[in-house]
Design a protein that fits this description.
- This protein is α/β, with parallel strands linked by helices.
- The protein has one domain: Vaccinia Virus protein VP39 (Rossmann fold, 3-Layer(aba) Sandwich), CATH 3.40.50.
- Helix content is 37%, strand content 22%.
- It contains six helices and seven strands.
- It has a seven-stranded mixed sheet, with helices on both faces.
- α5 links the parallel β4 and β5.
- α2 runs parallel beside α3.
- The longest helix is centred in the C-terminal third of the chain and has 19 residues.
- The structure holds S-adenosyl-L-homocysteine (SAH) and magnesium ion.
- S-adenosyl-L-homocysteine binds next to α3 and β2.
Length: 199
């Protein structure tokens, strides 16, 4: 397992795959264990690095992870097999925005880590599948330090993408149903939980 994780980190580096930073995944694993999270939905598997590590947080954690890129999906499947996690990690090859989850399915934790420009769409689609006391986690909210520093960016595409992350942050801050806390960990992580209105 340890060896596989190192191999995955090297593969990601060599192929420019943006897997979670060590600090970020360590935070998430601890959160899963402390809060007795059992069912995780991940949007954006890449090669399965975060899915496998989340699944390894505790014995009864199960992860469903969605990936739309075929090469990544194949690599992810291979890695899940290598560590014998076939019964813990379910890899779905589809665009997350087109996935049809069975009605009534709920997850204790939903981890949004796919196309940064679509974060709001993912949130609005998958919030219905969050367990009542569940949490929606979003990664890369600092986006390498670009968020909040848009005027320093020369590339128009990058500026637009950063703009979308900034408006996603506004969306979270203004969301009446969810309360969001932001953590300056890894590349920036947020945790959104439902507000339970007091009587
Ligand atoms: N969670 C991974 C990293 C994911 S990188 C880790 O930390 O180990 C983001 C991945 O999201 C890429 O592999 C990309 O192909 C995938 N992706 C982007 N848009 C998507 C979509 N709409 N549906 C499913 N996967 C998507
Ligand atoms: Mg990420």
């Amino acid at each position: 397992m340890k060896q596989l994780i190192v191999e995955m980190e090297e593969y990601a580096k060599a192929h420019n795959i943006p897997i979670m930073q060590k600090e970020g995944i360590a935070f998430l694993m601890k959160f899963i264990k402390t809060n007795h999270i059992k069912n995780v939905l991940e949007i954006g598997s890449a090669i399965g690095y975060s899915a496998i590590l989340m699944a390894s947080s505790d014995v009864d954690v199960k992860v469903t992870t969605i990936e739309k890129d075929e090469t990544c999906y194949m690599e992810c499947l291979k890695n899940v097999k290598k560590c014998g996690f076939e019964s813990k990690v379910n890899v779905v090859f589809q665009d997350a925005l087109e996935v049809n989850l069975a009605e009534g399915t709920t997850y204790d934790l939903i981890f949004i880590d796919a196309a940064k420009g679509q974060y709001r769409k993912f949130f609005e689609k998958f919030e219905y599948f969050l367990a009542p006391n569940g949490v929606i986690v979003t990664d890369n909210l600092k986006f390498h330090g670009y968020v909040g520093n848009k005027d320093k960016i020369e590339s128009k595409n990058l500026r637009q993408l950063v703009g979308k992350i900034e408006s996603y942050i506004d969306f979270l801050n203004e969301n009446e149903e969810f309360e969001t806390k932001f953590y300056d960990i890894g590349d920036g992580i947020s945790l959104s939980t439902r507000r339970h209105n007091e009587k």
